[in-house]
Design brief:
- The complex is a heterodimer of chains A (about 170) and B (about 110).
- Chain A is an all-alpha fold.
- Chain A contains 7 helices and no strands.
- Helices cover about 75% and strands about 0% of the residues of chain A.
- Chain B has one domain: Helix Hairpins, CATH 1.10.287.3510.
- Chain B has helices at about 5-25, 30-50, 70-100.
- The chains are: A mainly alpha (about 170), B mainly alpha (about 110).
- At the A-B interface, helix 1, helix 2, helix 3, helix 5 and helix 6 of A face helix 1, helix 2 and helix 3 of B.
Chain lengths: ~170, ~110
Protein backbone atom coordinates (compact mmCIF):
# COMPACT_ATOMS: atom_id res chain seq x y z
CA UNK A 1 0.00 0.00 0.00
CA UNK A 2 1.67 3.19 -1.15
CA UNK A 3 1.88 6.39 0.87
CA UNK A 4 -0.42 8.18 -1.57
CA UNK A 5 -3.12 5.58 -0.98
CA UNK A 6 -2.81 5.87 2.80
CA UNK A 7 -3.15 9.67 2.59
CA UNK A 8 -6.14 9.32 0.27
CA UNK A 9 -8.00 6.96 2.59
CA UNK A 10 -7.27 9.17 5.63
CA UNK A 11 -8.62 12.23 3.78
CA UNK A 12 -11.62 10.30 2.44
CA UNK A 13 -12.48 9.07 5.94
CA UNK A 14 -12.28 12.63 7.29
CA UNK A 15 -14.41 14.02 4.46
CA UNK A 16 -17.09 11.32 4.58
CA UNK A 17 -17.38 11.17 8.37
CA UNK A 18 -17.66 14.93 8.76
CA UNK A 19 -20.07 15.19 5.81
CA UNK A 20 -22.23 12.54 7.48
CA UNK A 21 -22.10 14.58 10.70
CA UNK A 22 -23.09 17.68 8.74
CA UNK A 23 -26.00 15.75 7.29
CA UNK A 24 -27.35 14.04 10.41
CA UNK A 25 -26.16 16.03 13.45
CA UNK A 26 -28.85 17.04 15.93
CA UNK A 27 -27.49 20.55 16.41
CA UNK A 28 -27.21 22.92 13.45
CA UNK A 29 -24.04 24.45 14.96
CA UNK A 30 -22.41 21.02 15.01
CA UNK A 31 -23.41 20.61 11.36
CA UNK A 32 -21.63 23.87 10.48
CA UNK A 33 -18.46 22.80 12.29
CA UNK A 34 -18.60 19.40 10.57
CA UNK A 35 -18.90 21.25 7.25
CA UNK A 36 -15.69 23.07 8.20
CA UNK A 37 -13.75 19.81 8.59
CA UNK A 38 -15.28 18.31 5.47
CA UNK A 39 -14.23 21.29 3.33
CA UNK A 40 -10.75 21.21 4.88
CA UNK A 41 -10.46 17.54 3.92
CA UNK A 42 -11.56 18.34 0.38
CA UNK A 43 -8.76 20.96 0.23
CA UNK A 44 -6.40 18.11 1.12
CA UNK A 45 -7.90 16.02 -1.68
CA UNK A 46 -7.16 18.86 -4.14
CA UNK A 47 -3.56 18.97 -2.90
CA UNK A 48 -3.31 15.21 -3.41
CA UNK A 49 -4.58 15.71 -6.97
CA UNK A 50 -1.78 18.19 -7.66
CA UNK A 51 -4.10 21.24 -7.75
CA UNK A 52 -2.15 23.48 -5.39
CA UNK A 53 -3.89 26.75 -6.31
CA UNK A 54 -7.31 25.16 -5.88
CA UNK A 55 -6.36 23.74 -2.47
CA UNK A 56 -5.40 27.20 -1.23
CA UNK A 57 -8.52 28.77 -2.80
CA UNK A 58 -10.65 26.12 -1.12
CA UNK A 59 -9.21 27.01 2.28
CA UNK A 60 -9.57 30.77 1.69
CA UNK A 61 -13.03 30.83 0.05
CA UNK A 62 -14.88 27.89 1.61
CA UNK A 63 -13.24 27.36 4.98
CA UNK A 64 -12.48 31.02 5.63
CA UNK A 65 -15.50 32.58 3.93
CA UNK A 66 -18.54 30.39 3.46
CA UNK A 67 -18.34 28.49 6.75
CA UNK A 68 -18.05 31.79 8.64
CA UNK A 69 -21.00 33.15 6.64
CA UNK A 70 -23.04 30.02 7.52
CA UNK A 71 -22.19 30.43 11.21
CA UNK A 72 -23.27 34.09 11.04
CA UNK A 73 -26.51 32.99 9.40
CA UNK A 74 -27.16 30.44 12.14
CA UNK A 75 -26.47 32.85 14.98
CA UNK A 76 -28.51 35.69 13.43
CA UNK A 77 -31.62 33.57 12.86
CA UNK A 78 -32.25 31.60 16.03
CA UNK A 79 -34.77 32.44 18.69
CA UNK A 80 -33.65 30.24 21.54
CA UNK A 81 -30.83 28.05 22.71
CA UNK A 82 -32.76 24.82 22.39
CA UNK A 83 -33.55 25.65 18.77
CA UNK A 84 -29.78 25.88 18.20
CA UNK A 85 -29.05 22.63 19.97
CA UNK A 86 -31.90 20.65 18.47
CA UNK A 87 -32.89 21.89 15.05
CA UNK A 88 -35.99 20.55 13.31
CA UNK A 89 -35.51 17.70 10.89
CA UNK A 90 -37.61 15.46 8.70
CA UNK A 91 -37.79 11.68 9.01
CA UNK A 92 -34.48 9.86 8.69
CA UNK A 93 -35.98 7.30 6.35
CA UNK A 94 -36.72 9.95 3.71
CA UNK A 95 -33.10 11.17 3.84
CA UNK A 96 -31.72 7.63 3.73
CA UNK A 97 -33.93 6.69 0.77
CA UNK A 98 -32.98 9.82 -1.21
CA UNK A 99 -29.26 9.61 -0.39
CA UNK A 100 -29.08 5.85 -0.91
CA UNK A 101 -30.98 6.04 -4.18
CA UNK A 102 -28.69 8.74 -5.57
CA UNK A 103 -25.61 6.82 -4.41
CA UNK A 104 -26.91 3.60 -6.04
CA UNK A 105 -27.51 5.34 -9.38
CA UNK A 106 -24.06 6.96 -9.29
CA UNK A 107 -22.32 3.68 -8.44
CA UNK A 108 -24.20 1.89 -11.21
CA UNK A 109 -22.95 4.48 -13.71
CA UNK A 110 -19.44 4.39 -12.22
CA UNK A 111 -19.09 0.63 -12.53
CA UNK A 112 -20.19 0.57 -16.16
CA UNK A 113 -18.19 3.57 -17.41
CA UNK A 114 -14.75 3.49 -19.06
CA UNK A 115 -12.68 6.64 -19.51
CA UNK A 116 -9.49 7.11 -21.56
CA UNK A 117 -6.94 7.34 -18.75
CA UNK A 118 -3.48 8.86 -18.92
CA UNK A 119 -0.77 6.53 -17.64
CA UNK A 120 1.79 8.87 -16.04
CA UNK A 121 1.08 11.46 -13.39
CA UNK A 122 2.14 15.06 -14.04
CA UNK A 123 4.07 17.11 -11.51
CA UNK A 124 4.74 20.78 -10.89
CA UNK A 125 2.84 23.86 -9.86
CA UNK A 126 -0.43 24.63 -11.63
CA UNK A 127 -0.75 28.25 -10.57
CA UNK A 128 1.03 29.88 -13.52
CA UNK A 129 -0.69 27.79 -16.26
CA UNK A 130 -4.03 28.40 -14.53
CA UNK A 131 -3.44 32.16 -14.66
CA UNK A 132 -2.56 31.99 -18.34
CA UNK A 133 -5.65 29.89 -19.02
CA UNK A 134 -7.91 32.28 -17.10
CA UNK A 135 -6.62 35.35 -18.96
CA UNK A 136 -6.44 33.84 -22.45
CA UNK A 137 -8.91 31.09 -23.16
CA UNK A 138 -11.42 31.83 -20.41
CA UNK A 139 -11.13 35.61 -20.21
CA UNK A 140 -14.80 36.31 -21.10
CA UNK A 141 -16.23 33.88 -18.49
CA UNK A 142 -13.68 35.22 -16.01
CA UNK A 143 -14.91 38.81 -16.47
CA UNK A 144 -18.55 37.70 -16.31
CA UNK A 145 -17.76 35.84 -13.07
CA UNK A 146 -16.32 38.99 -11.51
CA UNK A 147 -19.39 40.96 -12.68
CA UNK A 148 -21.67 38.27 -11.21
CA UNK A 149 -19.81 38.44 -7.90
CA UNK A 150 -20.16 42.24 -7.78
CA UNK A 151 -23.88 42.16 -8.62
CA UNK A 152 -24.52 39.34 -6.12
CA UNK A 153 -22.78 41.16 -3.27
CA UNK A 154 -24.58 44.46 -3.99
CA UNK A 155 -27.87 42.57 -4.26
CA UNK A 156 -27.25 40.74 -0.98
CA UNK A 157 -26.55 43.97 0.90
CA UNK A 158 -29.65 45.53 -0.70
CA UNK A 159 -31.78 42.58 0.40
CA UNK A 160 -30.76 42.85 4.06
CA UNK A 161 -30.98 46.66 4.30
CA UNK A 162 -32.98 48.21 7.11
CA UNK A 163 -36.32 49.44 5.81
CA UNK A 164 -37.35 52.95 6.90
CA UNK A 165 -41.09 52.85 6.26
CA UNK A 166 -42.88 49.53 6.50
CA UNK B 1 -1.89 3.68 -6.51
CA UNK B 2 -4.83 6.08 -6.29
CA UNK B 3 -6.93 5.97 -9.45
CA UNK B 4 -9.66 8.16 -10.90
CA UNK B 5 -12.24 5.73 -9.54
CA UNK B 6 -11.18 6.39 -5.94
CA UNK B 7 -11.97 10.08 -6.37
CA UNK B 8 -15.22 9.38 -8.22
CA UNK B 9 -16.31 7.05 -5.39
CA UNK B 10 -15.49 9.73 -2.79
CA UNK B 11 -17.37 12.41 -4.69
CA UNK B 12 -20.47 10.22 -5.17
CA UNK B 13 -20.60 9.53 -1.44
CA UNK B 14 -20.24 13.25 -0.64
CA UNK B 15 -22.91 14.11 -3.24
CA UNK B 16 -25.34 11.57 -1.76
CA UNK B 17 -24.72 12.92 1.75
CA UNK B 18 -25.32 16.49 0.50
CA UNK B 19 -28.59 15.49 -1.17
CA UNK B 20 -29.64 13.69 2.02
CA UNK B 21 -28.86 16.88 3.98
CA UNK B 22 -31.05 18.96 1.66
CA UNK B 23 -34.09 16.73 2.20
CA UNK B 24 -33.37 16.00 5.87
CA UNK B 25 -32.99 19.51 7.31
CA UNK B 26 -35.93 21.80 7.93
CA UNK B 27 -33.61 24.64 8.90
CA UNK B 28 -32.86 26.78 5.81
CA UNK B 29 -29.19 27.19 6.80
CA UNK B 30 -28.96 23.40 7.05
CA UNK B 31 -30.25 23.13 3.48
CA UNK B 32 -27.52 25.60 2.46
CA UNK B 33 -24.91 23.33 4.10
CA UNK B 34 -26.20 20.45 1.96
CA UNK B 35 -25.94 22.55 -1.20
CA UNK B 36 -22.31 23.39 -0.36
CA UNK B 37 -21.54 19.66 0.01
CA UNK B 38 -23.12 18.95 -3.39
CA UNK B 39 -21.07 21.71 -5.09
CA UNK B 40 -17.87 20.38 -3.51
CA UNK B 41 -18.62 16.86 -4.75
CA UNK B 42 -18.95 18.26 -8.28
CA UNK B 43 -15.65 20.12 -7.84
CA UNK B 44 -13.81 16.93 -6.82
CA UNK B 45 -15.04 15.36 -10.05
CA UNK B 46 -13.87 18.30 -12.17
CA UNK B 47 -10.37 18.28 -10.70
CA UNK B 48 -10.03 14.48 -10.78
CA UNK B 49 -11.05 14.27 -14.44
CA UNK B 50 -8.68 17.10 -15.32
CA UNK B 51 -5.83 15.19 -13.69
CA UNK B 52 -6.49 11.68 -14.95
CA UNK B 53 -8.09 11.74 -18.37
CA UNK B 54 -6.31 11.90 -21.70
CA UNK B 55 -6.95 15.35 -23.10
CA UNK B 56 -3.83 17.37 -23.76
CA UNK B 57 -4.40 20.78 -25.27
CA UNK B 58 -1.44 22.93 -26.35
CA UNK B 59 -1.46 26.45 -24.98
CA UNK B 60 0.55 29.33 -26.39
CA UNK B 61 3.67 30.24 -24.46
CA UNK B 62 3.39 27.75 -21.63
CA UNK B 63 4.69 24.21 -21.66
CA UNK B 64 1.78 22.40 -20.14
CA UNK B 65 1.78 18.64 -19.74
CA UNK B 66 -1.79 18.48 -18.50
CA UNK B 67 -5.09 20.08 -19.47
CA UNK B 68 -6.18 22.33 -16.63
CA UNK B 69 -9.65 23.19 -17.94
CA UNK B 70 -11.27 21.16 -15.17
CA UNK B 71 -9.51 23.24 -12.54
CA UNK B 72 -10.73 26.44 -14.23
CA UNK B 73 -14.28 25.09 -14.03
CA UNK B 74 -13.75 24.31 -10.35
CA UNK B 75 -12.67 27.93 -9.78
CA UNK B 76 -15.87 29.17 -11.47
CA UNK B 77 -17.93 26.82 -9.29
CA UNK B 78 -16.25 28.29 -6.19
CA UNK B 79 -17.01 31.86 -7.35
CA UNK B 80 -20.66 31.03 -7.98
CA UNK B 81 -20.88 29.20 -4.64
CA UNK B 82 -19.69 32.34 -2.88
CA UNK B 83 -22.38 34.40 -4.70
CA UNK B 84 -25.00 31.78 -3.87
CA UNK B 85 -24.10 31.68 -0.17
CA UNK B 86 -24.25 35.48 0.15
CA UNK B 87 -27.63 35.76 -1.62
CA UNK B 88 -29.08 32.76 0.21
CA UNK B 89 -28.15 34.14 3.62
CA UNK B 90 -29.65 37.54 2.71
CA UNK B 91 -32.91 35.80 1.74
CA UNK B 92 -32.83 33.65 4.89
CA UNK B 93 -32.41 36.72 7.10
CA UNK B 94 -35.34 38.39 5.31
CA UNK B 95 -37.49 35.28 5.85
CA UNK B 96 -36.52 35.27 9.54
CA UNK B 97 -37.51 38.93 9.91
CA UNK B 98 -40.88 38.33 8.24
CA UNK B 99 -41.92 34.92 9.58
CA UNK B 100 -39.88 34.71 12.79
CA UNK B 101 -38.46 31.33 11.78
CA UNK B 102 -36.28 29.84 9.07
CA UNK B 103 -38.13 26.54 8.90
CA UNK B 104 -38.42 25.94 5.15
CA UNK B 105 -42.04 24.77 5.58
CA UNK B 106 -43.15 28.02 7.25
CA UNK B 107 -43.15 30.59 4.40
CA UNK B 108 -46.13 29.20 2.53
CA UNK B 109 -48.13 32.40 2.07
CA UNK B 110 -47.51 32.31 -1.71
CA UNK B 111 -49.24 28.97 -2.23
CA UNK B 112 -51.98 28.90 -4.83
Amino acid sequence: MSGELVVFWCLATLVVLSAATAAFARSIVNAAYALFFSLLGIAGVYALLGADFLAVSQVVIYVGGIVVLVLFGILLTNRSLEELLQSKRRSQWLALVVGGGILAVQLAVLIGAIWPLRPETPAGSTTAPLGVLLLQKYVIPFEFASLTLLVALIGASYLVRRRERD
Amino acid sequence: MVTLYHYLLLSSVVFALGAATVVFRKNAVGVLVGVELILNAANINFVAFSRYTEHVMPLAGVSQPVALDGQVFAIFVMILAACEAAIALAIIINIFNRFGSIDVDEPSSLRG
